[in-house]
Amino acid sequence: MSLSSYPQPAGVGVAPPPGTLHRVIEPEAAWGLPDLRELWHFRDLLFTLALRDVKVRYKQTALGVLWIVLQPLLGAGILTFIFGKVGGFATSYPITFAGMVIWNTFSSALTRASGVMVGNQQLVSKIYFPRILLPVATLVSTLVDSAVSLMMLAVIMLIYREPVSYYICLMPAFLVLALALALGIGLFLTALQVRYRDVGYMLPVMTQMLLWASPVAFTAAYVVHRVPKFETLYFLNPLVALIEGFRWSVLRDSPSPGAGWIGYTTALALVLLLVGAVFFRRMEKDFADVI
Fold first, then answer.
1. What are the phi and psi torsion angles at 251 (to 5°)?
2. Residue range 20-39: mean pLDDT, rounded
3. 251 pairs with which residues across the strands?
4. Residue 216 and residue 212: Cα distance in Å, rounded?
5. pLDDT tens digit string along 70-103?
6. Chain centroid to CA 49: how far?
7. Across all residues in the chain, what is the average pLDDT?
8. Helix (H, G, I), strand (E, B), or coil: what is residue 243?
């Protein structure tokens, strides 16, 4: 007896009427990039998650959003004192504050993106949505902090009578580059942290090391002048050209890191973003089970 002779449930084996919408479910490839069309479909959720991140972050603090202003102001003041007064480095408060703006953009985006999956484990384990929305949403909230810091930088430049650079129009490009670099590393780390909570303990140490290895409170030209034989090694740290490029685009007297090193940082950020997105998508299918 053929299978066709058995009773069939209603509708089975019958072609859908012309014009009927239907969905075909296919297995995903083991390796690949996130589906951009699906991300666009969930764009409302993206902005909802970003808005929630901004609201929750300062919800139960006495000073609230004032911390967005106080953190870079205090941080720049401490670094200027340590490197300028104690260490004898050629620096100033505007130089340090400009470095703090781009550094905070990178470090905040990296820290939030790296811990966002574990921080939203109830959401990840119960509801379906593109998981990559969570780390991407942290970038939107990071930009809010960066916008406030940029306004503070403008005020500081007026107080210290710092002339504006001719290349100020390139400043947003360096902010985007910082976010791309942070997201690329963050996608890799947040996927690992779902399985290995050690990442959460390792990240603060790694971030602190990057801070001291980067020219946040001084210009890279000062370091290169003191130890010129280590120039290439120093600039292999992508944050060096990133910070120097941002400062060059804002402060007129700040030296340029050079087109070659900016190109190197851009290429590295794009590669890390691509690799991080592929790795995240590869690990994504197990998040709900192991988180």
1. -100, 130
2. 65
3. 164
4. 8
5. 888 888 888 888 888 887 777 889 999 999 999 9
6. 15
7. 83
8. helix
- Biggest distance spanned by C-alpha atoms of the chain: 93
Q: Report the candidate in 171, 159, 143, 152 with the shortest Cα–Cα distance to residue 251.
A: 171
Burial category of 54 from C-beta neighbours within 10 Å (exposed 0-12, middle 13-18, buried 19 and up): middle
Tokens of 235: 């600039």
For the stretch 252-274, pLDDT in tens is 988 889 999 999 999 999 999 99
What CA–CA distance (Å, rounded) separates 105 from 178?
Answer: 7
Q: List Cβ neighbours of 263 (8 Å cut-off, separation of 6 or more).
A: none
| The model's pTM | 0.83
Determine the length of the chain: 291
What residues have CB less than 8 Å from 247, skipping those under 6 apart?
A: 95, 98, 99, 102, 219, 254
CB 58 within 8 A of CB 65: yes
Q: Tens digits of per-residue pLDDT, 197-237? A: 888 889 999 999 999 889 998 888 888 878 888 888 899 99
Give the model's confidence band at 4: pLDDT under 50 very low, under 70 low, under 90 confident, else very high: very low
- Tokens linked to 265: 């940082």
Could you tell me what percent of the chain has a pLDDT over 90?
36
| Angle formed at CA 112 by CA 193 and CA 115, multiple of 5 degrees | 20
CB 178 within 8 A of CB 239: no
CA distances from 154 to 66, 112, 144, 159 (A): 17, 26, 16, 9
Give the DSSP H/E element, type plus range, for residue 245: helix 238-250
| Residue 286 burial (CB count, 10 A) | 12
How is residue 84 annotated by DSSP? I
